[in-house]
Task: structure prediction
Amino acid sequence: MNDLEYIEIGIALQQTISSDLANHFSIVPKLINDGEACFYFDSDRVSEIKSIQEELLLILNKNVILEPIDSVVLQRALSTYYRTNTESSKSISYSNDFLEELIFESKHINASDIHIEIYDDDARVRLRIDGQLIEKNHIKKDSYNELINQIKIKANLDITEKRLPQDGRIEYEDFDIRVSILPTHHGEKVVMRILGRDASHLDINQLGLEKDDLLIYLEAVRKSNGIVLISGPTGSGKTTTLYGTLKYLNSIDRNIVTVEDPIEYTLKGINQVQLKEDIGLTFTSALRSFLRQDPDIIMLGEIRDSQTAQMAIRASLTGHLVLSTIHTNSAIGTISRLMDMGVPSFLLAETINISVAQRLLRTLCENCKKEQPFNLNDLPKTFELDKEIKNHYVATGCPNCYHTGYKGRRAIYEILPMTIETTNAIKDGSLEQSQVMNDRKLSDKALNLFIEGHTSIDEIYSILIN
Result:
């Protein structure tokens, strides 16, 4: 049996067989030429070698050699090069083009981004799945520029421009790709964000809000005017929460308008505008136009500056419900940020319906998570634990989770309800020192998820520091 610890194959060799074939027979190509095909083969299935060789001979019309290798090593290679969506039986028809295959496979396995990057001696493709980058494969350096030009052509970008960043879009029937190209020291790096168009599957009741928090949130968004703000870093699920809210509010008797960058989902009955700053269509200018469109609900993709913040306040004061996102670390931090943008505290107290902060945490794979004794030294030194924890779970890795130890993500929310106590604390500037949050903080929610065994200390560590 081969004692390799890691299997590495190039793109050309990888494309000689499909993901379905690789996973069905538990094989990874080692060498394929005109008359012979040699594969790494799962050592746990050595009793099937003869029958599988015969089947592959009929399929490939080549002499087949199967080289047994440790099952864990082989499964890791299958997860890297021939990953499939185990939760879906939907079949994907790939073209012969590597780029098309990469895009459709990434969409199929729920990757959010595709990173294509070049270094001094090689190039590679990585996929962001459940918030984490996972290496997909390596690309020969001499074929890298051809791949970049393919992407540029599909995104309607200038293939001769290699010195400046470029942004474009590739459109498919049921999803779009947002393309960002950045010149680096060794060549151009590409990031392709996969944007699903259909928001029909979004349900505000299924986003992860706890029952009490959901009741508070729905009460806030049912108001006819005011501002609803969702905060969190990039990739924390803010847009999904907003779209779930819009779907909940969408009805025939409401005029809903949005300005977004980019439009990630489409919802029937909602008037959506794509931001185009290069021609002057900014959040602020769009909002001015919206106010002349007789809207009931306005959604701004993001409050980025003082002017947009002031306009959003003005819109809420004139009888509109405004929904938006903002980049802050906490629900209370949103209030401070708006004050820094020049919005008076008394206006904030009167117009904000609710402030929400959220994060997405990877959940441990139920198939392979391992329980072990808890050590207090695993927590940040600045975090004060007020609960007893005897054991916790850690990520290990198995074929079910593609050897990551995690499967799926769960949202946690920090809700700042606008009670009389909260509005008074905003007006007199004592919100930071008040006790209005109680056990609603993100750190409390993250710790509870950890104690219940749904996630690991590594996932919640940064939240506990804050």
Q: What stands out?
A: The longest strand covers residues 352-364. Confidence is low (pLDDT under 50) at residues 86-96. Residues 141-154 form the longest helix (14 residues). The two ends are 50 Å apart (CA to CA).
